[in-house]
Amino acid sequence: MSAEIVRLSFFIGILCFCTVWEILAQRRTLTQSKSYRWLNNLGLVALNGLVLKFTLPILAIELAVTTSHAGVGLLNWLSLPMWLSVMATVVILDLAIYWQHRLFHRVPILWKLHRMHHSDQDIDVTTGARFHPIEIILSMLIKMVVVVVIGAPALGVLIFEIILNGSAMFNHSNARLPNMVDRILRRWVVTPDMHRVHHSTLRHECDSNFGFFLSIWDRWFKSYISQPKLGHHDMSIGIDKFRRASEQRIDKMLTQPFRES
């Protein structure tokens, strides 16, 4: 079975699981048409898959196979056991994505790309895969650089890609965890309540909780906010620039980085 089929199978499975979870334990009342948002968000996901396929001749997993065969990168030089190399790959790539995320909030031109993700006024499982195609390409290129430098094994990259996609859908889910479960889980991984703070319209809250999988980076690098100031039910989601319902249409999302209103 190819890596692409494995990734797609996990994507569909986690999407279905989180969808059912949102139905059974909805956290916030939706303010927008769910079917309209889903049609456009998932349409963007399909477009991003095509963009990657036709713009980059090789992706992170294929590059990892090449570097492993060539013996390039730190983990190949250290000759670590496979299980340890896989674990190291997942942790290092997750750290890289954390700093990439902070960079996209810090640099104005990158923020214009990334804010399309934040312009969703209701966050749910589909928001976790809603990114501008240019950001998707830049993110893939960053991952590929890290893969070469550390000599990541292909298995580790595949596992990380599955975890990254799965955790993004999980922590964007509009679903409720029992408070005790949330407190325990967020010591190690990003939970929906933890990440929801990051989608606040308040900029200091938006510039926090950058982690996608492991929550430890936000605590270690002082970017952690436990709860939104206005509470999860009263907080406002999105950004102020793009509040019209039409901005959730795929053509409008694609042009948001090049417009100011």
Q: What is the makeup of the main sheet?
A: none
Indicate the mean pLDDT.
95
Shape: globular
- Strand count: 0
Structural class: mainly alpha
Overall helicity: 55-70%
Order of helices and strands: HHHHHHHHHHHHHH
Radius of gyration: 18 Å
Uncertain spans, ≥5 residues at pLDDT below 50? none
**Residues in β-strands, percent:** under 5%
**Number of discrete domains:** 1
N→C terminal distance: 45 Å
Total number of helices:
14
Transmembrane segments: 6-26, 38-60, 80-99, 140-164
Keywords: Membrane, Oxidoreductase, Transmembrane, Transmembrane helix
Subcellular location: Membrane
GO molecular function, one term: oxidoreductase activity
Word description of this protein:
The protein is mainly α. It has one domain. Helix content is 62%, strand content 0%. It contains 14 helices and no strands. Helix 5 crosses helix 7. The mean pLDDT is 95. Its main location: membrane. GO terms for molecular function: oxidoreductase activity. This is Sterol desaturase family protein. Keywords: Membrane, Oxidoreductase, Transmembrane, Transmembrane helix. It is found in: Membrane.
Topology overview:
Elements: H1 3-24, H2 34-55, H3 60-70, H4 74-78, H5 82-106, H6 108-118, H7 133-150, H8 154-171, H9 179-185, H10 192-196, H11 203-206, H12 216-220, H13 231-234, H14 250-255
Helix pairs in contact: 1-8, 3-7, 3-8, 5-6, 5-7, 5-8
Primary descriptors:
261 residues; mainly alpha; 14 helices; Sterol desaturase family protein; Sterol_Desaturase_Related
Question: Would you kindly provide a brief summary of this structure?
Answer:
The protein is mainly α. Helix content is 62%, strand content 0%.
